Amino acid sequence: MMNLFLLRHGNASSAGPGQQPSLTPKGRKEVTLVAQYLLKKKISLTHIWHSPKVRAFQSAEIFRQIQGTPSLPMEEIKGLEPEGDAGRTAGLIRAAKAASLLVVSHLPVIVDLAYQFTDPSVNPNIAFPTAGLAAFEGQGENWKWLWSLDPSTLK
C-alpha cells in the first residue's frame, strides 16, 4: 500500500527570456505551510519526485528540509512538466517501490494525474491552487482519493 501526495508547485514569478520561473516569497510560504501540515499530521515521506522545472524542484526541496531528512530521495521525473503525459507518469507511480511518495508538478498535468488515481464514478472535484495538495492511497490499479488541501486554509 502506498500513500501518494500530489502537489502543485508554489506561487512562481514571471521569468524573463531564457529563464525559468522560480518560487516567490508567497510561494515559499505556501509550500512551507503545506509541508508543516504534513509534519504535524505525522506523515513521513519516503520519496519525492519533481518535474525538471525550477519551481517544482524548489517546492520539493522545501518539503525535504521540513521533513528533516537530508537523505530523503528526490528524483527529477520527465513527464511531470505542464505538458507531461499523465498516463505514463501514473504507470511509473504504480510501479514505484515507495511507501509514501510526494509528486511535485504543474497545471494542467497534475489534474490529469490526479484523475488517474480516482474512481470515475465518484468524480471528486480536486482543485490545485498553487501549493495545493491531494492525498491518495492504494496500489496497482486500486486507489482511493482521501483528501485535498488548499494552503489558503492554513495559518
Can you characterise this structure?
The protein is an alpha/beta fold and 155 residues long. It is built from four helices and six strands, in the order E-H-E-H-E-H-E-H-E-E. The chain has helices at residues 25-40, 54-67, 86-95, 109-115, and strands at residues 2-8, 47-50, 74-76, 100-105, 133-139, 142-149. A six-stranded mixed β-sheet has the order 3-2-4-1-5-6, sandwiched between helices. A hairpin with a 2-residue loop joins strand 5 and strand 6 (142-149). Helix 1 runs parallel beside helix 2 and helix 3 packs across helix 4. The longest helix has 16 residues, at 25-40. The mean pLDDT is 94.
Mean pLDDT: 94
Shape: globular
Largest sheet data: 6 strands, mixed
Calculate the terminal CA-CA distance, rounded to whole Å: 31 Å
What is the chain-wise order of helices and strands? EHEHEHEHEE
- Proportion of helical residues: 25-40%
Helix and strand composition category: alpha/beta
What is the number of helices? 4
Please indicate the percent range of residues in DSSP E strands (runs of 2 or more).
15-25%
The tally of strands reads 6
Spatial extent as radius of gyration: 14 Å
Which residues sit in consecutive blocks of at least 5 with pLDDT less than 50? none
Strand order of the largest sheet: 3-2-4-1-5-6
